[in-house]
Amino acid sequence: MSTILLLSTARFLMNNPPEVLGRPFNTFKMVHITTASKGVSDTAYFERNRKFFKEHNYDCTEIDLDHTTGDDLKKVLEKTELVYVEGGNTFLLMKSIRQSGFEKIIKELLPKGLIYMGASAGSYVACPTIEMALWKHQDKYSHYNLTDLTAMSLVPFLMTVHYKPEYDQILKEKISQTPLPVKILTDEQGILMRDGKVELIGKGDEIIL
To answer: Whole-model pTM above 0.85?
Structure first.
């Protein structure tokens, strides 16, 4: 059984979300991958998320993929139930995922029951590529010399997050240029993929352009 939950932002967790994983989110033993937050100048969102996890009694261990890698990383993830991959700089995150061995470990542990949850950049790296991070409304961070945009392919579609109607023209253009389906999320929505079945969760209808 493979369970993947992709969010636009961790605010989804703060708004009394449905218990789509079978029990409250704060009852899972969780690893919080913080790496992407190092690649942005404004980390207020990260501090807000960290505070939320603490105040709501999440069993949460923070890990930076630049410092915990390989067998050490695997040992930690083998003992957890859910890995939450924080948002921030998608390029830095993808680079660190490759260098740490995170992708191989995740693909080994997902079928064994480890739940993958990502937000923003953490959602993008679960897609086949991170090309969405180059789209005009999203391309605002350093690329860290990353030219290969191949991502982990945990899901068979692309995503664009933090949707606003003002992005419609850009999104229509980019969606028409990619052969892959694109899921669009507002900050109050998420996508749950369980054993290949995809479900939109949260507030509002699916956005189709």
So the answer is: yes
